[in-house]
Amino acid sequence: MPKRLLKYKNYDVHAITTVAGDRRNANIVTWLTQTAMGGKVVAVALYKVDYTIELVRESGLLNINLLSTEQTSLIRKLGQQSGRDHDKFRRLPYALDERNCPYLTEAIGYVQCSVLHSTDAGDHELFICEVLKQHVLNDDKTVMTYQFLKERKLVRG
Question: DSSP letters of 40-89?
Answer without folding.
Answer: -EEEEEEETTSHHHHHHHHH-EEEEEE-BGGGTHHHHHHHSS-TTTS-TT
